[in-house]
Amino acid sequence: MLTNSASGARGALEVERRSEPRAQLGYRALVRLQNKLTFPARLRDLSSSAAQILCDSRYGLLIDPSGRGDKLAELSPVELAFALPAQDFRARCRIKYAKMLSSKRGEPAMLFGFKFLGVDLAMLQKLESILDPLGR
Cβ–Cβ contacts within 10 Å for residue 97, how many? Predict the structure, then answer.
């Protein structure tokens, strides 16, 4: 499958590398780095094993000070939480990639790929109940 690239470049296409289809979203989310450090983000897309978020670069640089994803493998897992009309969802995640972008208003933003950790049957069922009505 070919998709527009995540960078938003006009006309740029790339081969879809994800093994699972994703539902395109725009819901508010919260990322918790530590017990007392939580910041807002936008949930861009979601699958049964991963999510992509977009956040203000001021917050994103708390996760990845380089803005390039250089040391993401060394990070401790983070918590991602979001609320959809039918239910709430929380998961511990490993951050797989980071990319600096410009937002629609020209402000710097960061894009992150999150991989869910410890997906059990109950969590998978909850994700499926979120994704099915979205037409994934």
Answer: 15
pLDDT single digits (tens) 16-27: 455 666 777 888
Exposed, middle or buried, 1 (CB in 10 Å: 0-12/13-18/19+)? exposed
Burial class (CB in 10 A: 0-12, 13-18, 19+), 31: buried
**Choice between 132 and 45, residue whose per-residue pLDDT is larger:** 45
SS3 track for the chain: CEEECCCCCCCCEEECCCCCCCEEEEEEEEEEEECCEEEEEEEEEECCCEEEEEEEHHHHHHHCCCCCCCCHHHCCCEEEEEECCCCEEEEEEEEEEEEEEECCCCCEEEEEEEEECCCCHHHHHHHHHHHHHHCC
Read off the pTM.
0.76
Total Cβ atoms within 10 A of residue 96: 14
